[in-house]
Design goal:
InterPro entries: SpoIIM-like. With 319 residues, the chain is an all-alpha fold. It has two domains: 68 residues, no CATH class; 223 residues, no CATH class.
Length: 319
């Protein structure tokens, strides 16, 4: 059967079913199950005869929404939270690896701009970092402890304040996606430029390694998950710009939900980063090997959970 004939034969049924799902209309559970079976049969047919077609993408999206509708009242397992981080989220996040790559590239370019600007214009550092921070850090450098700023305040107070602030930045990066990807792009760009200028500041003082040894203890996870939160914002922003086969409203709702799920996944990592900054970073005189171990272990954790593990699970579940 030609694709056009297949669509014409079933279009009315698909549209009615999609409306019932997306508009939350009341529908008899038995009818819903029957429609779902018919839909999956049509999906299987399209996968066989019309691969890489818009029809297949459309049916895939409806089937996914229908699955969520059917199981909305399913009794949750007691280990639901564990299952979310162990299986559900990594499998879900695999589809957004390309978006994560674009986010990382944008952030990396912003860092490079911050580095180049700070090297070529001494006033740029004060413009980006602020006079108070630069003056305090210069004073700490004169006293022989360039990262003393991380030792101020109580451990618990620093931990709570830093964690809350980091989560706020992540939510901001996500929320700005509501004004399309440009909003999130702005947050990523500004934070990237700031990071580049920040590290260049210590480089110009000949203290890059000394500062990095302390800053990246917590910064490895902190910066990584800010980039991931930026990915969440781009997911929502792109859903507005590129609705594909969905209506723009439905696409936005899906993008907002997917983006929020990504942001939620970062919260435990922000807590870990806040704990490291509040309780560990202040010990800047720790052995180099220990600092490097914490930094590279943190990097390995992020790469494993957000990149390697989703790829592994996807291949395993595809068999």
């Amino acid at each position: 059967m030609r694709e056009a004939a297949f669509v014409k034969q079933n279009k009315e049924k698909w549209v009615a079913f999609e409306q019932a799902i997306t508009e939350n209309f009341r529908i008899n559970p038995d009818d819903l199950a029957d429609y779902y079976i018919q839909l999956t049969n049509d999906l299987a047919y399209a996968q066989t005869y019309y691969p890489d077609s818009k029809t297949l993408l459309y049916l895939n999206s409806i089937a996914s929404q229908a699955h969520q509708k059917i199981y909305i009242n399913k009794k949750e397992n007691k280990n639901r939270i564990i299952e979310f981080w162990k299986t559900e989220f990594p499998l879900f996040f695999y589809q957004y690896h390309k978006t994560l790559l674009y986010t990382f590239i944008l952030f990396g370019v912003a860092c490079c701009i911050g580095i180049i600007s700070a090297i070529n214009d001494a006033s740029f550092l004060r413009l980006i970092l602020g006079d108070s921070y630069v003056n305090e850090t210069l004073n700490n450098i004169d006293q022989g402890d360039p990262t003393a700023i991380y030792k101020s305040g109580s451990m618990v107070g620093s931990f709570l304040g830093i964690t809350i602030n980091n989560i706020r930045v992540a939510l901001l990066a996500y929320a700005f996606g509501v004004i399309t990807s440009i909003g999130t792009g702005y947050i990523l760009f500004s934070n990237g430029v700031m990071l580049g200028a920040f590290m260049t500041f210590f480089y110009t003082k000949g203290l890059l390694f000394e500062a990095s040894k302390s800053v990246w203890l917590h910064g490895t996870i902190e910066i990584s998950v800010i980039v991931i939160a930026g990915c969440a914002g781009l997911v929502m922003g792109n859903s507005i710009l590129f609705p594909k086969t969905f209506s723009r409203r439905v696409s936005f709702m899906k993008g907002a939900k997917d983006g929020l799920k990504i942001v939620i996944s970062t919260i435990p990592f922000f807590i870990v980063a806040g704990f490291i900054e509040g309780f560990i970073t202040r010990y800047s005189n720790m052995p180099v090997w220990l600092a490097m171990f914490i930094i590279f272990s943190s990097l390995a954790l992020i790469i494993f959970y957000y990149i390697l593990y989703p790829i592994y699970l996807n291949k395993t579940h595809a068999k």
